[in-house]
Amino acid sequence: LHAHGVVHRDLKLENFLYESEDASSQLKLIDFGFAKVWDPSTLMMASCGSIAYVSPDVLCGKGYTNKCDLWSVGVIVWMLLSGYPPFHGDEKLMMSKIKAGQADWSHKSRWKPVSDSAIDFLKKLLCKDPERRMNAQDALRHPWLANRGSSGNPAVLSRDALRSLQRYADASKVRRAVLQLLAQELSPEETKELREMFLAIDKTNEGTICLRDMKDAIRSSGSRSPANQRKRPNEVHVNTNSKLLQVPGMPANTADPSSPCGSVSSAGSPITPARTLRRAPSGVLDELFCMLDANGDERLYYSDFLAAMMQARSRLREEAVRATFHRLDADRSGTISVQDFRAVLGETFEGADVEELVKEVDPVRCGEISFEAFVRVLEDHDAVPTSPARTPARMPSNSNCDKRIGFFPGEAH
């Protein structure tokens, strides 16, 4: 959240829910009613949050930063480790203790089984002085968290995943914007594998992927299990003429155009785009990462990664596609206008004015995008979608959730 400039301002145990009752279910943070997009050059002044979790700097009324969330995280971790709150009593007494930073360490039996590293983590979060309190990056790098679940084994990207990353890097801004919105319509079950892949690549456990982690994952993807090496006839293939895959000393594409695998090496094994990318010089991978790094902060975020992985899906649920279209159709007119894009995405997307995004898919300059044009944004080729050119303002109540839209020629619709 903080990497995106968002401060929650009401972190507490009650605002964390599991996706499902499954034992491996993921936690979700909810209730963004007090959340704020914060400018680091300013201080926030509004006194908000839940008293048991609120930080001293919020109570003092002199202004505070996003480190108010880190104090709240400290309270949450304290309660999970000990089973009781660090500050208690009536509201007046509790506020006095919070302002003084007087946490209740008196229950020594509760802290006996807790490691010194965990206690150090707590003390650096429940620090009265926000200047000395850890920020989010410091907390993630703390030994108590940094060493959790680290296997040391390199993450492995599948062939489809490598292709998807390259295709997303080459995609137009309007396509990337639509894919990001479409990814948000996927169910937890549909994103589980991708989420696990992202977490495996993120070796620093910071919630983002840095260039080094991405390079390690790409380089480690050369060894695949026999099951993954079997040819899949319906596999989606990328544009092998992409400049990102043109390695010096290697022809861009010397294969028979009808061959789904690209070029063939002298040894007879196919030189696929994924294989070429794995063997590409460091500079080529730097360029790929730069094109994926929309914010220019040398980090790849989960939302970008999820959108990129959508490129590997040759068929998508019509429900998700229509839901994304209707989300962009803010005025429910049945088409998407520049004003609709602004209402959902803001004035710009990845540095480009949203008006330019509309022009990319509006060749007749009518200022609106029909459902047919919207589906074409998701196509790799100019296949005609099966859906009508214009959709009703509201989705039909009897829509079939399992119906899928095919985006590639030769697929049964």
Automatic annotation (TrEMBL):
Residues 1-145 form the Protein kinase domain. Pfam families: EF-hand_7, Pkinase. Signal peptide: none annotated. Keywords: ATP-binding, Calcium, Kinase, Nucleotide-binding, Serine/threonine-protein kinase, Transferase. Residues 218-237, 246-275 are annotated as: Disordered. PROSITE patterns: EF_HAND_1 (PS00018), EF_HAND_2 (PS50222), PROTEIN_KINASE_DOM (PS50011), PROTEIN_KINASE_ST (PS00108). Its cofactor is Mg(2+). InterPro entries: CDPK_Ser/Thr_kinases, EF-hand-dom_pair, EF_Hand_1_Ca_BS, EF_hand_dom, Kinase-like_dom_sf, Prot_kinase_dom, Ser/Thr_kinase_AS. Residues 257-270 have a biased composition (Low complexity). It comes from the Eukaryota. Residues 189-224, 316-351 form the EF-hand domain. CDD domains: EFh. GO terms for molecular function: ATP binding; calcium ion binding; protein serine/threonine kinase activity. SMART domains: EFh, S_TKc. Belongs to the protein kinase superfamily. Ser/Thr protein kinase family. CDPK subfamily. PANTHER family: SERINE/THREONINE-PROTEIN KINASE. This is Calmodulin.
